[in-house]
Design goal:
It is built from nine helices and eight strands. With 256 residues, the chain is of the alpha/beta class. It has a single domain, classed as Spore Coat Polysaccharide Biosynthesis Protein SpsA, Chain A (Alpha-Beta Complex), CATH 3.90.550. Strands 3, 4, 5, 6, 7 and 8 form a six-stranded mixed β-sheet that branches. A two-stranded parallel sheet has the order 1-2.
């Protein structure tokens, strides 16, 4: 609904014993299946094996896409014929969480059943917004070449905390410098707390141990998250300085 381009939709089902599997079979929608909740990293990697196109798009199950969301993303992607980009759509959220990339607070309902759909559709396009730096989370678009090059999502971060900035860092380390949020690609985010369903990993500490800096430092100072996109790729950054001070503060071993 509200999409312009053709898509191959791929679900991952955790257990799938609530009738969802039968519904997907009936609708002839592709899916991967696990007997338990395996988290986002493994689910993404398994689902990606069924993808047939050159572009992979990650969308959470608590998001409602708005008219033209996919065309706006693809229009931005086509500006980079070398495919060296990572793009995100822009979230409209019912609560203000301090996320400078989201349009908030605009409460059109906290669940699909409570969605004020007509009001949302009549309002969303009148909210002025801009493209921004710091693409890290869904809805996110990456070319298959670079998904494969970095090996998809890191399953060491299962079930998933900090897997988004880890994926962005992997792209950064292979030379991707376009991390762009597309203001015209809009998705309403119900902000469901699905992470409460399973025990979570200590993603913050994992990220620091792996990359020798905090995810906050990476997203704010390197990806410039939330700053207005100026049409230029991001520049290189002195990661050694970030590594030294953050590892001292967290009392992690220093590497030379």
């Amino acid at each position: 609904k509200h999409s312009v381009l053709p898509h191959k939709i791929i679900f991952h089902l955790n257990e799938g014993n609530d009738g969802t599997r039968e519904w997907l079979d009936k609708m002839r929608i592709a899916y991967t299946l696990s007997s338990e909740n395996i988290g986002i990293c493994k689910a993404m990697n398994q689902s990606a094996t069924l993808a047939a196109s050159d572009y992979l798009l990650f969308l959470n199950d608590d998001m409602y896409v708005l008219p033209g969301w996919d065309k706006a993303l693809m229009d931005a992607a086509l500006q980079y014929p070398d495919h060296r980009f990572y793009l995100s759509g822009t979230l409209i959220e019912p609560l203000s969480s301090g996320n400078r990339c989201a349009i908030a607070p605009f409460d059109f309902g906290r669940t699909p059943d409570a969605l004020q759909e007509e009001e949302l559709l009549n309002t969303y396009s009148s909210i002025s917004w801009h493209d921004w730096y710091g693409a890290t989370w869904p809805p996110s678009l990456v070319h298959r070449i670079y998904w494969n090059k970095v090996g998809g999502y890191s399953e060491a971060f299962s079930p998933g905390l900090y897997s988004d900035p880890d994926f962005s860092m992997k792209l950064w380390r292979i030379g991707i410098r376009v991390f762009r949020g597309v203001g015209a690609s809009r998705v309403y985010h119900f902000m469901s707390r699905t992470t409460a369903r399973i025990p979570m990993n200590n993603g913050h500490r994992q990220f620091v141990k792996k990359w020798q800096m905090t995810a906050r430092y990476f997203t704010q100072h390197i990806l410039k998250m939330g700053k207005r996109f100026e049409g230029k790729p991001l520049q290189g950054h002195d990661e050694c300085k970030a590594s030294f001070w953050h590892r001292l503060r967290l009392r992690l071993p220093l590497t030379m």
